[in-house]
Protein: GNPTG phosphotransferase
Amino acid sequence: KMKFVTSSLQFCHHSNFLKFNQNIILPSCLFVVFLGPPHLFRLAGKCFSFVESTYKYEFCPFHNVTQHEQTFRWNAYSGILGIWHEWEIDNNTFLGMWMREGDSCETKSRQTKVHLVCGKSNKLAYVSEPSTCVYFLTFETPLVCHPHSLLVYPTLSEALQRKWDEAEQLLYDELITQQGYKKILKEIFEEAGLLKATEEKEVEKRNKKISLEFETVEKCSKEYKQLSKEIEKLKDLLSQHGIAYKGNSGE
Structure:
């Protein structure tokens, strides 16, 4: 039997950060707090099953989706179809959850989109595989029956709401295009943690953070002295091992 990831909600790559230990999936990455409509937090820590033909699917909101082959074959499949990754958002509305970076499948990883619909009870109602290794789940819950239950704007911080309001005004004044407006919204959602930024953007954020550290001469001088000490240590280490190196005072 495969156990679902029981730690807090995560944004990490399964292929790089999850490892198998017998029948238990062990998370070994950093976790973040719940992000999204607050009332949906009630679903965290729970799992819902659905049996289709010889397969049992298990959906654990904000954790993962697993598939278990119900057979006595010695090599019956039991694995991960996706790890909680991000929301799908359109027109100020949470449309569903994307569970990505599941088990490897040919040249890519399995992934699952979970569509949230109104229902009388919390239930995994439908599972399909519209394309190879890409799955589609329909999850029914009374938590999304209210017409405003999946609005994005109320879940944002005041600062991000103001940023959204400013973008609306710019669009109204025709100072930005519809494409520019959508780009700003995407940045807002990424900053809020609702969407996962691309690796390029993550690098850009880190570089921006580093540049902010040198806003003053004092900070720059302090960092320069620290780096100089590290360079001297590296030079000594290279000399001890007889490794030639090139360098100058400018470097």
Summary: Residues 234 and 240 are 10 Å apart (CA to CA). The two ends are 56 Å apart (CA to CA).
